[in-house]
Amino acid sequence: QTQLVESGGGLVQPGGSLRLSCAASGFTLSQFAVGWFRQVPGKEREGVSCISSTDDSTYYQDSVQGRFTISRDNAQNTVYLEMNSLKPEDTGVYYCATGTQGLFSIHAMCVRRLKEAGYWGQGTQVTVSA
Question: Most buried in the list 36, 71, 102, 116, measured by CB within 10 Å?
Answer without folding.
Answer: 36
